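Technical annex, item 7. During the second reporting period the consortium partners agreed on a shared format for inverse folding records so that results from different sites could be compared directly. Each record opens with the tokenized structure and is followed by the designed sequence. A conforming record, contributed by the partner at site C, is shown below for reference.
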């Protein structure tokens, strides 16, 4: 199946999921109120950071290795699974003991969300499907998991369950997704290779992944630190209003990741061919990322006021102003995903680390300066500035990223040709 067909089918699934997710966010926010919404989403933000650590920076490397060496897929998968399983168990124990001094509600929310840590290694199933060009099956697995989580959330709202109930919906979503991914992989490819472990391969992959782990950790902190700083500096209510706004803003963040999952295995193969299709594919990829970023940001800005009012009413009125600012961060985010795929294919993921760390430090300083006086909008401005610094400005400021900066510029120049090429691609079987 061609890239355009896979992407189109996947987008339909994700748009259906997006629309349902918006309704769920609205109903949950109205039911819990801004303060309990802030507590819930702050706990999720903490565990999201820990899940990033449990991933060990191996997600993109796993897809790249399996796409380049399909005959060694089982050994690659098994080795990475064991590494991530060990990390998840250790982090789970750390959460249990490290949160004993917290308030009861915050502690219980953390403990329930943290149950994902020991099982996070099964996320490797998704990478295996992507590497095997089965992106659509992976999307269907995520859809069924999301649907189960959504039904549990809505049931909790209708039956007026306490806030401690709602992390269970997220657990169910993740676990059902993993089960469906396992079924899809087993039916199409066979044994996953859970039992396989090659010590030397594990250490080689782990050494390569450490810069990516540091980069991803800084990235997740960049995504979630604003909510945690707002909670600490302005309280749960303002954190809830802000977190609700960025949840809407981030509803489109699946599109760059989806495009990356479709294109990356093909770009790996194109690079190996040496026929020039790799550079052409990268230019088209960056052009598509620019177009996706501007279109998505414009849609979010246009919908900010009516959607936030419809979903949450007056209690979350400040979310519209936050969303109006935060929406434009989608442009550098889309470019950042494309740049990271480029660096992954080139085996230079370490080049991402300085730019993301610089952006994280900038974000912390700006949050510290702007949150006390501006509140949520100040955090949104800090996010926009730091994202732009991380994925656009540093592509031209830092020498190791100049190649990606060149492709970003070529992508802009290629934008006028993109619609014609997309129409042409509809009649091709496997365009890059």
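Designed sequence (site C submission):
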């Amino acid at each position: 199946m061609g890239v355009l067909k896979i992407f189109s089918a996947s987008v339909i699934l994700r748009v259906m999921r997006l629309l349902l997710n918006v309704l769920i966010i609205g109903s949950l926010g109205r039911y819990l109120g801004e303060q309990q919404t802030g507590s819930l989403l702050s706990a999720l933000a903490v565990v999201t950071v820990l899940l990033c650590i449990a991933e060990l920076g191996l997600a993109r490397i796993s897809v790249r290795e399996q796409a380049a060496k399909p005959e060694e897929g089982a050994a690659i998968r098994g080795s990475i699974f064991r590494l991530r399983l060990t990390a998840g168990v250790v982090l789970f124990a750390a959460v249990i003991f490290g949160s004993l001094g917290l308030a009861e509600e915050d502690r219980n929310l953390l403990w329930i969300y943290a149950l994902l840590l020991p099982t996070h290694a099964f996320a490797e199933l998704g990478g295996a499907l992507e590497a095997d060009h089965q992106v659509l099956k992976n999307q269907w697995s995520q859809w069924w998991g999301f649907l189960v989580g959504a039904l549990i959330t809505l049931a909790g709202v209708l039956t007026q369950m306490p806030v401690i109930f709602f992390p269970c919906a997220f657990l169910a979503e993740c676990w059902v997704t993993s089960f469906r991914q396992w079924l899809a992989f087993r039916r199409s490819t066979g044994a996953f290779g859970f039992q396989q472990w090659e010590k030397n391969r594990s250490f080689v992959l782990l050494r390569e992944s450490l810069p990516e782990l540091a980069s991803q950790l800084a990235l997740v902190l960049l995504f979630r630190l604003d909510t945690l700083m707002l909670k600490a500096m302005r309280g749960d209510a303002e954190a809830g209003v802000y977190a609700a706004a960025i949840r809407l803003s981030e509803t489109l963040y699946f599109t760059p990741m989806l495009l990356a999952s479709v294109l990356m295995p093909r770009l790996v193969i194109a690079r190996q061919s040496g026929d020039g299709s790799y550079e052409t594919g990268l230019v088209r990829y960056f052009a598509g990322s620019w177009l996706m970023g501007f279109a998505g940001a414009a849609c979010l800005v246009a919908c900010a006021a009516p959607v936030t009012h419809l979903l949450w009413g007056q209690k979350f009125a400040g979310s519209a102003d936050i969303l109006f600012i935060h929406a434009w961060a989608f442009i550098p985010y889309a470019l950042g995903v494309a740049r990271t795929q480029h660096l992954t294919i080139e085996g230079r993921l370490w080049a991402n680390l300085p730019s993301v760390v610089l952006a994280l430090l900038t974000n912390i300083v700006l949050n510290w300066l702007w949150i006390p006086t501006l509140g949520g909008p100040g955090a949104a401005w800090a996010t926009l500035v730091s994202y732009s610094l991380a994925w656009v400005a540093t592509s031209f400021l830092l020498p190791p990223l100049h190649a990606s900066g060149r492709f970003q510029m070529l992508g802009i120049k290629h934008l006028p040709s993109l619609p014609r090429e997309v129409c042409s691609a509809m009649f091709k079987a496997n365009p890059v």
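The longest helix spans residues 3-55. The chain has a mean pLDDT of 81. All partners now use this format for quarterly exchanges.
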